[in-house]
Design goal:
CATH topology: Aminopeptidase
Mean pLDDT: 96
Number of helices: 4
Low-confidence stretches: none
Number of domains: 1
Structural class: alpha+beta
Order of helices and strands: EHHEEEHEHEE
CATH architecture: 3-Layer(aba) Sandwich
Shape: globular
Bound molecules: coenzyme A
């Protein structure tokens, strides 16, 4: 498979010509992650159409409104990973954004895609003069050590926060932040 050297990270700029193909690939990444057990808001049953609809109806309008940055990780001509920066914060928090939906297709994991996406996201955040990034992630999940290795601080864990992917149990979430520069 691919190595970190062949990963291309780019900002999603939805254009009509490529839109339906990009939505289909993004839907495939989300669908595969949920079916592989990711705790990322959704529970089974979760169809390809559910996954594509999330990007089309929820994320795309925010990207077009300029309140959401989406990064895409391309491997061999396919989108295999993605992450978002939600900048729709209250008027008193223009310097903060929320990291959301870091997703790497199960077939492309442990090759540095997640790390590359988070590094690129931070570069974009700094260029946008953001000074604070916040997120939450399932406690004990694969993303927790990744965020810690990227310098995020874990504040603590909220028990019973969300159902897991097949609704068989509730899981805790860990709240994290990273200061990009002091104010
Ligand atoms: C979490 C996730 C994005 C990681 O993506 P990835 O491309 O496999 O991550 P990387 O290869 O960049 O890993 C970077 C580092 O993170 C840590 N890490 C990644 N996956 C890990 C795992 N399963 N267990 C422990 N540490 C892990 C390691 O320190 C790793 O470095 P190493 O491979 O040199 O040991 C991926 O597993 C995923 O999509 N999970 C499901 C969705 C999810 O939970 N997203 C988080 C939402 S908040």
């Amino acid at each position: 498979m691919n190595t970190a050297e062949s990963i291309r990270i780019e900002r999603w700029n939805p254009a009509p010509a490529a839109l339906s193909h990009e939505l289909e690939m993004l839907g495939e990444v989300l669908h595969a992650c949920v079916h592989a057990g990711a705790s990322v808001s959704f529970v089974l049953p979760f169809s390809h159409e559910d996954a594509t609809a999330f990007w089309r109806d929820h994320v795309l309008p925010a990207v077009r409104a300029g309140t959401r940055l989406v990064l895409l990780a391309w491997l061999d001509g396919r989108i295999m990973g993605t992450v978002q920066l939600d900048m729709l914060t209250p008027p008193n928090q223009p310097h903060r954004a929320e990291v959301k939906k870091l997703l790497v297709h199960p077939e492309a994991r442990r090759r540095g895609v997640g790390k590359s996406l988070m590094t690129a996201l931070e570069d974009h955040a700094r260029r946008s003069r953001l000074t604070l990034l916040t997120l939450d992630t399932v406690t004990g999940g694969a993303a927790e050590p990744l965020y810690l290795s990227q310098g995020y601080v874990a504040l603590g864990s909220i028990p019973q926060y969300a159902l897991n992917f097949d609704s068989s149990k509730v899981e805790a979430t860990t709240v994290m932040y990273k200061i990009l520069s002091s104010r």
